Structure formats: structure tokens, C-alpha cells
Amino acid sequence: MMDLGLLLIRVVVGALFIGHGAQKLFGLFGGYGPKGTGGWMESVGIKPGVAMAIFAGVLELAGGTLFAAGLLTPVAALLIALTMVGAIVKVHGPNGLWATANGYEYPLVLLAVVIGVALIGAGEHSLDAVFGLFQAK
Fold first, then answer.
1. Is 76 exposed, middle or buried (0-12, 13-18, 19+ CB in 10 A)?
2. What are phi and psi of 122, to 5 degrees?
3. d(CA 37, CA 122)
4. CA distance 112 to 61
5. What is the pTM of this model?
6. Where are the transmembrane segments (predicted)?
7. CA-CA-CA-CA dihedral for 71, 86, 45, 41, to nearest 10
8. Full DSSP string of 3-36
């Protein structure tokens, strides 16, 4: 059952990060693409906005894809963790902890999830297991 739980966590969290990356890179799923996202990033002090939007989008898309597949899971977690640390430090941190005040509660939960999965392994239903990579001992 643990392996099915890990699969569920990886697929849901990974798919959501794929979506966030696609919003930033391609304007899909209600996103604003690099230019729109970059403009918002500049407005909150993240510069250069367009380049940072593309960087964050690539990290989210690649990290989400790898995480969902359970391939190179520690690398996937690192890519996602970088975006979450950035979100906490540059966007949500000044607002305190709670999401009701646009705080860092949700990015912190996602950070804990991806690091936790990376530490315990992606499970038997993963490409890491197929290729014998990064399995917990």
C-alpha cells in the first residue's frame, strides 16, 4: 500500500507542477506565459522578470514531469524545492505562515512533500524502481 500512496502523491503533485510550468511557459491553464508572468514577477521585485518566469517554468515543468514519473526523484525534488524556496522567500514569506493571508503555508507543505518523497524513495511504481535508481535501503 505504501507504494500506491507514493504513486498517488507523486502523480498529483507532479501533475500540478507540470501545470504551473505550462502556465508560465506557454500561457496554458489560465496562465499568462513568460511575458505576463514576468511582468508580475518584476512587480514583486523578481528581476529580470521574463527570464525568471522562464527559469521557474522550466524548473516546474521538468521537476513535475520527473516527479510524477518517479524518475531521478531526488533531482525532481530539488527542482521543485528551488521554486518553493523562491516562492517562500520572494513572495509569501513577508505575509506570515497562513495561506489565508497569502502566507507560505502551502509552498512549505509542497516543499516537505517533495523532500519527504525524495528521502524515502519514489516507490515500486516508479521509473526509478524500473532502472534501479535511488531506492531506499
1. buried
2. -80, -10
3. 31
4. 19
5. 0.95
6. 69-89, 109-134
7. 30
8. HHHHHHHHHHHHHHHHHHHHHHHH--TT--HHHH
Q: Where are the domains of the chain?
A: 2-131
For residue 34, the one-letter residue type is: P
Q: What is the pLDDT of residues 128-137, one digit of tens each?
A: 999 999 876 6
C-alpha cell of residue 55: 527559469
Residues 85 and 97: beta-carbon distance below 8 Å:
no
Distance CA 32, CA 23 (A): 6
Nine-digit cell string for 8: 498517488
Helix ranges restricted to H, the chain = 2-26, 33-43, 49-69, 73-87, 105-120, 127-131
